[in-house]
TrEMBL record:
Signal peptide extent: none
Protein name, entry field: HAD family hydrolase
Pfam families associated with the record: Hydrolase (PF00702)
InterPro entries assigned: HAD-like_sf, HAD_sf
Gene3D superfamilies per the UniProt record, alphabetical: 1.10.150.400, HAD superfamily/HAD-like
Length: 813
């Protein structure tokens, strides 16, 4: 089973930073650092909210409770007011002084005193920030490692908070402020990082330190890398919190809105703890999948199980193999991190291992059930029945599928299929089957007694769904003369569990997939294949049990057919899931009592997995769809999660294809319909849910246009447009990693100071630069929904007489 250290994450662990994907480039080099400079927010400090502005809504909620804000101003309304107040304060400050840096007090001066008590809200904002913030243990680990080497540490922030307010927040988060030598903040220095001026100010404090030996780390390229470079300082980009189009969290937002907002930054940090460093790209993808998706879902199951164990005094649990390969160590780690004593002892069992042992007799119904299993061979039939083959009539047909035997005639003129049926229903066959049933039962009950002492008192844990194995276990011990006193805990349960409860079973599920069930439960129950595969180890299902000469009973397992690459990827995913648990425990401890455990909101914690199942990224559909699924019930069935289907199913488009996946497996066997659709139509599902999330607004049109740009292989282009909509398009282009060096805004002078990483230009300047560069024709992204003819005409007119014909990208439905 995969093993990871149970030691909790600690910011004082001076080696922790070396496991960070972005900080590891400094490994073995910190002795050469003369001064470590750190950004604060989204670098040294993370927040327990989806977006920084969400802090303002929390401020309003607390202000309402304390009478500091008029009740008719809703939390969302105050959030928008607070954002606008900052913009107004910066504009006024720029007009007055030429600098845009403001203080928190200046921001609140823009909010009317008639609706709030400004001084109280200033104080409350600092308090709420302190409540939301926590130390990034990776950066803090590096800070303490540098201090151990006697390297000075400075904190440099573009922020409206004062240095005193920042110190209060940092101290509340647990930072030892004695380890910080200098704290510079733009609101006090009246200088920001992007211009390089704040870094120049930093150098004044350390004139003896060469600029080249100063390292600054931050999340903003313009401020923390380019700004540092202007002062001759090395800037290291730290994009852990940064959102972008390929981010799992962006795709979750499109499908579900903000998912686990309190834990969003923590999940990103766990994914940045790259324990799979140096591995192949597929392993890195699956490691992050473990930290971001599989880990949260399975840890929620672990927490739910632990809650029940505490409530009911349970000290030993029995997860079912094969999924217990990952679930067992996760249960052990969850218990240890929670300070609980819990024995986790897996039970080797499967549908096939319990099938014969759970029969009272073998009649026509049982025979029909087995003979209808697709692909079952004659040899496999006798193996599962445990009946020795002493009939020469079948020896020549052992490798023949049962279905094929319907059309093969034996020496006496009967089909082999009929001979099989007659043999198994004969007195001789029935006698052998009765002996086999009893032997299977004795071995299974003997195995349970040997391993667990009381075979009738198991506490089983499984992913789900029908409770088939659990029902079989209770029936088997009952047939053996024992009274079942078992508890069965499933991640997801169908309506079938209700029937089992009517039979007296204590079987519970964290999520329900049947009538009245959750959306996540239903989706997971429909498509469990890759979840199950990623939890398994290097061995197959339990087929049966055998007893050696000493009387010891051992499970016999199927051989597993996996490539080394696939097995390495699964191990990377499992390491990621275990790693997530440690980060989860870190944040829970940091915010003791202020955020709830995962088990309190299982539906919310299932949304990351639901999103992958319902709306996978193309990369996820490719990597997860290439995993193989092996079912060892009676016959060895191995297939890709996304196994190829006939081309005809795709011809009517993605919607028709998804509808076709409702057919029975005998018509079209599709394990993961959304994965298959995404592999063929990569952004269909994203586009569909983007439209729904945007209320059928402009976002889907912008997305389609940017996809055309990327499909044409264009990485850099100019923006033409004006106003808020053009700004929206600009930010969307950045979000898709497209470079927009110049913005031609008809309403803005070319010499106007830009607010972002671009320059304002005129069309005449754009033509001159394009001709001077000697490169291919320039590309323009036209950001308008009204000037559909005017804007393209202006661009083409500007290039009349030029050898260059610009390529135009317009927003179209």
């Amino acid at each position: 089973m995969p093993k990871e250290p149970h030691a909790p994450i600690s910011p004082t662990d001076q080696l922790l930073w070396e496991k960070d994907r972005y900080l590891s480039v400094l490994a073995g080099k910190i002795q050469g650092i003369g001064l470590l400079s750190l950004d604060i927010f989204d670098t040294l400090l993370f927040r327990t909210c989806a977006n920084p502005s969400d802090v303002f809504a929390e401020i309003a909620e607390q202000a309402h409770r304390n009478g500091f804000l008029k009740t008719y101003v809703s939390c969302e309304a105050f959030k928008e007011m607070r954002i606008r107040a900052e913009h107004k304060a910066r504009a006024k400050q720029t007009a007055r002084t030429g600098f845009s840096e403001v203080t928190l007090e200046l921001i609140y001066e823009e909010i009317p005193e008639a609706i709030c008590r400004r001084e109280e809200l200033v104080r409350l904002e600092v308090e709420v920030e302190a409540e939301c913030c926590y130390l990034n243990p990776h950066i803090t680990s590096l800070l303490y490692a540098c201090k151990k080497e006697r390297i000075p540490v400075a904190l440099v922030s573009d922020m409206y908070l004062s240095s005193e307010q920042l110190r209060r927040i940092l101290a509340s988060a647990g930072l030892d402020l004695s380890q910080v030598d200098t704290l510079l903040v733009s609101s006090e220095e009246r200088e920001g990082k992007s211009s390089g001026h704040l870094f120049a100010r930093l150098k004044e404090f350390y004139p003896q330190i060469d600029s080249q030996s100063i390292v600054h780390i931050g999340d903003n390229v313009a401020a923390d890398v380019e700004g540092a470079s202007k002062a001759g300082i090395r800037g290291l980009h730290y994009p852990v919190i940064l959102e972008h189009f390929e981010s799992i969290h962006h795709w979750e937002f499109v499908r579900h809105g903000d998912v686990l907002p309190e834990w969003k930054s923590l999940r990103k940090l766990a994914a940045a703890s790259d324990l799979a460093a140096g591995s192949g790209e597929k392993e890195r993808v699956l490691y992050q999948f473990g930290t971001d998706v599989i880990g949260p879902f399975l840890h929620t199951l672990c927490e739910w199980v632990l809650d029940i164990c505490v409530q009911e005094g349970i000290t030993c649990v029995n997860p079912l193999m094969r999924e217990a390969y990952l679930l067992a160590p996760m249960l052990e780690q969850a218990a240890q991190l929670r300070g609980m004593e819990l024995q986790v002892k897996p039970v080797y069992v499967s549908r096939q291992a319990t099938y014969m042992a759970g029969l009272e007799h073998f009649g026509e119904d049982e025979l029909a059930y087995l003979l209808n299993i697709q692909g079952l061979k004659v040899r496999e039939l006798f193996d599962v029945l445990g009946v020795g083959l002493d009939e020469e009539a079948f020896e020549a047909y052992l490798e023949k599928p049962i279905e094929a035997c319907k059309y093969i005639t034996g020496d006496n003129g009967e089909t082999i299929y009929s001979l099989l049926c007659n043999y198994l229903q004969s007195e001789s066959g029935q006698s052998k089957l009765s002996v086999s049933i009893e032997r299977h039962r004795q071995l299974l009950v003997g195995y349970l007694t040997q391993e667990f002492g009381s075979p009738n008192r198991l506490v089983t844990i499984d992913i789900g769904f029908q409770g088939t194995i659990q029902g079989a276990l209770e029936k088997i011990v009952r047939l053996a003369g024992l009274q079942p006193e078992m508890l069965h805990l499933l991640a997801v349960g169908t309506n079938r569990l209700d029937e089992l409860r009517l039979q007296g079973m204590d079987i519970r599920s964290m999520l329900r997939s049947g009538s009245g069930g959750s959306e996540s439960g239903k989706r997971i129950a429909r498509t469990p294949a890759f979840l199950e595969e990623l939890m398994m180890g290097g061995f197959g299902s339990t087929l049966r049990y055998s007893e050696d000469d000493s009387g010891r009973i051992s499970p016999i397992q199927a051989k597993l057919h996996r490539s080394e690459e696939e097995y390495a990827g699964k191990l990377a995913c499992q390491k990621g899931a275990l790693s997530f648990q440690r980060y989860y425990a870190y944040l829970l401890q940091q915010k003791d009592g202020r955020i709830s455990r995962a088990s309190m909101h299982p539906e919310e914690w299932s949304k990351p997995l639901h999103r992958v199942l319902a709306m996978p990224k193309p990369e996820e559909a490719r990597v997860l769809g290439d995993l193989t699924h092996q079912d060892n019930f009676c016959t060895e069935y191995i297939a890709l999660i996304c196994e190829a289907v006939a081309e005809e199913w795709y011809l009517a488009g993605p919607e028709a294809f998804l509808n076709s996946c409702n057919y029975a497996p005998s018509v079209m066997n599709v394990n993961w319909p959304q994965g298959m659709a995404t592999r063929r139509f990569p952004y269909y599902l994203y586009h569909y849910y983007l439209q729904l999330a945007d209320g059928f607004g402009s976002q889907a049109m912008i997305f389609d246009t940017l996809q055309r740009v990327k499909k044409d292989g264009i990485a850099s282009l100019m923006l033409y447009g004006t106003g808020a909509f053009a700004e929206q398009v600009l930010k969307a282009a950045w979000f898709h990693a497209l470079h927009i060096p110049y913005w031609i805004d008809p309403a803005v002078e070319a010499h106007t100071a830009p607010w972002g990483r671009f320059s304002y230009k005129t069309l005449e300047q754009a033509r001159a630069m394009s001709e001077a560069s000697g490169r291919t024709a320039p590309a323009f992204l036209i950001a308008t929904l009204s000037e559909l003819e005017t804007y393209p005409s202006r661009i083409l007119e500007a290039f009349e007489g030029s050898d260059l014909t610009p390529k135009l990208y317009q927003l179209r439905p």
